[in-house]
Amino acid sequence: MLPQIGAIVVNHNTREHLRRCLAAILADAPAQTIVVDTQSQDGSAALVRRTFPAVEVLEQENRGYGAAANAGLERVRAPHALVLNADTRPARGALAALAAYLEERPRAAVAGPLVVDEGGRLQATARRFPTPLEVLLQESGLRRLLPKASAKRGPRSVDWVLGAAVAVRRDAVLATGGFDETYF
């Protein structure tokens, strides 16, 4: 069964990253792929139309990430969407895994995938809001005297997820007003 997830890539002047990102996305056969291009001057939109004809290109004024993500969410028809920056490359099977995660948890509106850098190092992409003690330790410099906490893997509840790669339940996010369009 094909994943019930669409892919939305927010792009601004990152043509070569976009090419690699789309190749990785399309290897997973998403229900739909949309590139929201925010007035790129590097030929990104033309590249997508020429090289990836199945990908929908939505060109719009550069009003920032939040507005671009919302424009993509308005167009995607799948119940779930993976919203990505163009400099990301989802691993094979990631879209199906994220769609399955959201399907199995009907109360979850957002899922942040594991993100690693080019060297395979885990990136901090989801956290809880800091407690007063954590703020005190950080601001006083005492945090550096404590052992480093290892990044947690696996599903857990968090207060925020990094927008560079985020899977969402489309209707839930749109019902709450979508991405914050004041976030450029």
Keywords:
single chain, 184 residues, alpha/beta, six-stranded mixed sheet, two-stranded antiparallel ribbon, 8 strands, 31% helix, globular
Plain-language structure description:
The protein has 184 residues and is α/β, with parallel strands linked by helices. The chain contains six helices and eight strands; from the N terminus they run E-H-E-H-E-H-E-H-E-E-H-E-E-H. The chain has helices at 15-26, 44-51, 65-75, 94-104, 132-140, 170-175; strands spanning 5-11, 32-37, 56-59, 80-85, 110-111, 126-127, 160-161, 165-169. The protein has a six-stranded mixed beta sheet, with helices on both faces. Helix 1 packs parallel to helix 2. The longest helix is centred in the N-terminal third of the chain and has 12 residues, at 15-26.
Task: Provide a quick synopsis of the model.
The protein has 184 residues and is an alpha/beta fold.
Task: Report how far apart the termini are.
Answer: 36 Å
User: Per DSSP, what share of the residues sits in E-state strands of 2 or more residues?
Assistant: 15-25%
Structural class: alpha/beta
Helix-strand pattern: EHEHEHEHEEHEEH
Helix content: 25-40%
Name the overall outline.
globular
User: Main sheet, how many strands, which sense, barrel?
Assistant: 6 strands, mixed
- Biggest sheet strand order reads 3-2-1-4-8-5
How many E-type strands? Answer: 8
Number of helices: 6
The rounded Rg comes to 17 Å
Mean pLDDT: 90
Low-confidence stretches: none
